[in-house]
Amino acid sequence: MKYSTLASYQKALEGLEASQMAPVTLVLAKDDYERKQAIEAALALCKGWDVKRFEGDCVQRGPLFDELNAMPFLGLGSCILLHDVDKLDKGTADALADYVERPNRAVRFFMDASALPPKSKLVKLCEEHAVLCSIPELRPWEKEQQIEGWIRSFVKAEGRAIDGPAASMLARQLGTDKQLLEGEIEKLLCYVGERKAITVDDVTAICACVNLDTVWQLGEVLLRRDGGKALSITRKLFADGMTFLTLLWQVRGQFQTSFQICSIMDGGGSAGQV
């Protein structure tokens, strides 16, 4: 079974119990936030189960497969979470592909990665014998088009509403980083208290205003390795109230966008595609 959006995967989990889930699930998403949300939605169904976590860049095959093949104690199930399967050595990746074909049905095994080759053995077998949630990365302009709708949906899920202009202001000031937006929305929900709707005045009062033009200038001087100018711009941003993490997220997003544009042009893409 394959899902190509976070929403469709979360919808498929509604009403399920852990015992009804597929024994193996693979989540692929370059967006860290969406990958985390998909895994958390699955783990939320495993309350009371023993959860063990492994990292792909340092996992040892023996202990991992000991857990995967273990039988539950006193009838309690177990969940195994393996992060970054794209960092596994080939031998372990091949062994996992074999496991997908004949999994331990007493265990719920979740794997994630930013990406894997679509024709890799593990991806093909997960699509055929397990659950594959493969979320494609949106282009920067697609993220911008969708982010206001995401803001409204997030606020609605918390039992509140947000005015259209307020959602637009949040998107304009903070960009498309959902982790950053989630933190600001949570602050807004605390600020408005019992009120049902978030307004522009609330956003103005609470949320950090990110001068995106200045952040772009900072990114440009960093690429030029102009340390003096970069320090001057950074001091100004901090003086305007920007936090270090906010600045870091915005510069990271700028570099990602620039890299994507260069990749399109290097691959022979047209200006229209950019």
Q: Which ranges are low-confidence, i.e. pLDDT below 50, for 5 or more consecutive residues?
A: none
Q: Which class of secondary structure composition applies to the elements? A: alpha/beta
CATH architectural label of the largest domain: 3-Layer(aba) Sandwich
Radius of gyration: 22 Å
* Strand percent estimate: 5-15%
Put simply, the count of helices is 12
Number of structurally distinct domains: 3
Topology:
Layout lengths: L1 E2 L2 H8 L10 E6 L2 H12 L6 E6 L5 H9 L8 E6 L6 H12 L5 E7 L7 H9 L1 E5 L4 H18 L3 E2 L1 H11 L3 H15 L4 E2 L1 H7 L5 H12 L3 H13 L4 H23 L8
Parallel strand pairs: 1-6, 2-5, 2-6, 3-4, 4-5, 7-8
Can you tag this structure with a few keywords?
274 residues, alpha/beta, Rossmann fold, Helicase, Ruva Protein, domain 3, six-stranded parallel beta sheet, 8 strands, globular
What does this structure look like?
The protein is globular. The chain has helices spanning 6-13, 32-43, 61-69, 90-101, 121-129, 140-157, 164-174, 178-192, 200-206, 212-223, 227-239, 244-266, and strands at 2-3, 24-29, 50-55, 78-83, 107-113, 131-135, 161-162, 197-198. The strands form two sheets. It has a six-stranded parallel beta sheet with strand order 1-6-2-5-4-3, sandwiched between helices. The protein has a two-stranded parallel ribbon with strand order 7-8. The mean pLDDT is 86. With 274 residues, it is an alpha/beta fold. The protein folds into three domains: 2-135, P-loop containing nucleotide triphosphate hydrolases (Rossmann fold, 3-Layer(aba) Sandwich), CATH 3.40.50.300; 138-207, Helicase, Ruva Protein, domain 3, CATH 1.10.8.60; 210-263, no CATH class.
